[in-house]
Write a structure and sequence with these properties.
Elements lengths: L1 H27 L20 H4 L23 H21 L6 E2 L4 H16 L3 E11 L5 E8 L4 E3 L4 E2 L11 E7 L5 H4 L8 E6 L19 H7 L4 E6 L18 E4 L1 H12 L4 E8 L4 E12 L6 E7 L2 E2 L3 H19 L9 E7 L7 H4 L14 E7 L5 E6 L2 E8 L3 E5 L2 H13 L19 E5 L16 H19 L8 H5 L12 H10 L10
Parallel strand pairs: 6-7, 7-8, 8-9, 12-14, 12-15, 15-19
Antiparallel strand pairs: 1-13, 2-11, 3-4, 3-10, 5-9, 6-10, 11-14, 16-17, 18-19
Helix pairs in contact: 3-4, 3-8, 3-11, 8-11, 10-11
The structure holds zinc ion.
Zinc ion binds next to helix 8.
Amino acid sequence: MKKRSILRRGVAASIALLIILWTSSAAIAQMDRGPKTEKTFGIGLPRDHASQLFADKDYPVFPLKPGQEAYKDIDGARMKKDVIALSQIALHYRDTVNKQWWGRFPGTDADRAGMKYMTDEFTRLGLKVESFPYILARDWRPQSWNASYTTSKGNKIELATAFPVSGTKGTGPDGVTAEALWVGIGAEPDFLGRDVKGKAVIIYSTFVPGGRSHSASDRAGLFNANARAQELGAAMVINVMAVPGNGQFQPEGGLRNIPQITISQDEGFALRDRLGAGEKVIFTLHLNVPELANVQTAWTMATLPGASDEQIVIMTHTDGYFQAATDNNSGMAGTLELARHYATMPQVQRPRTMVFIQFPDHHHGEVARGRKDVGIDATYNWSKVALKLTMEHPSETLLYMYNSNLTATNQMSSSRWNAFGSAEFERMAFEQLRDFGVSVYGVEDGPKNGNYAPSFHIINHVVYHTSLDTPDLVPAEGMSRSVRAFASIIDHVIIDHVNRMTIAQLRGPNFPPKDERGTILGAIGEQSSGSQSVTLAPK
Ligand SMILES: [Zn+2]
């Protein structure tokens, strides 16, 4: 009896501990106030998060329709716990390894912990898990930096939100010092009559639509402002990111010949006002980026056997910047939830084998996905693959800018999407998204992770690659809607009912289609409106 009561106490204590751990992790892995800046402008994030963000319970629910009951077990709240747990790993890396450049990067303890989180769950569900170690030849990872400026009125400002852009040039120990020059959005006429040689060129850059593509970048193809400044001899480029508040931004694709950093709108507007008042401003930047070579990491594969050797392949990247809540904790959570959903079924109810592939270097060269003999590339037996899904950022809160303010809604953002295969497949995928409450927008890109098989993805991409990428902006309701729709798409491919599609039907007659974008706004738009098809600029 004594033993049992000790055991009971032990169980009670560990349950209490679990509850404490869970509540505290839920409390920690959310948005904080962010770096303190000298001045603030309008309502902004992350600093005003407490008054701007809705809780999960305040999002409208899109109820299941009759016939969709099979997807009730796909649970947004459970996936939200995964999102938070994965954020915790990144926060732990920030607090123990590098408080400036943090997230889950290949070869780090955080990489291994995030991957283990996935493989532990696959193992628990009874999937066969395999790990494939490989070496990433190099990676770009700054050790430390600081940015500050002095003004002719005697102020010295340390920039609390300065953040280097991945791949940019380090400064060496002496740093770079240069006079600031504001060139607006940095379009060609903004540079006329301005001598940027040797200057710290400041360019205001808007999200198009998010943390990666921004208006000053080459990627956006709008103004090519950053490249122009470099070409004309600037000493460094500072992008003031047009997002109200004190966020930090890592848009990737940094300038190679000179250093490039981003700063928040709060700090950028303070700078604007000083320059506008005629003050002379001198910038100093130190950016220490040691060489990093031979990074040891691993990609993984988890297999859930079906009744045939035809496959459904689900690909997920496990690396991410900052907390990485939407990019890509939300994708990882969705992947686990699909595994949970299908692992409970008898094998005969899964006509195709499900293969879950996780790779840790999406933002670091995608070696695991593309390099021959390392990972998954054209040499994989794609002829057996009925459908390839990429799980990337399936849920994000819709944000609005309102004059000088930024505020969150209690609604999901629409997703960029692509269904690559036959028109019939594309229409089926679109209709499943629609019927589960997932909105999409029209600029469809090509398939993610190669055009080897009929492919499908949706992707949200506003707050990713920023310090706003926290679980608060990954609504549980969005996770439910998206992942239920994905399962329904898989079932239209694998379940033997009227809607079942064969590999030939999924591919269509001329696979792979030359235009990698889908036809929804073409063929389907034509049918519904009777007008000519809409041609969108490829991106
Ligand atoms: Zn991603």
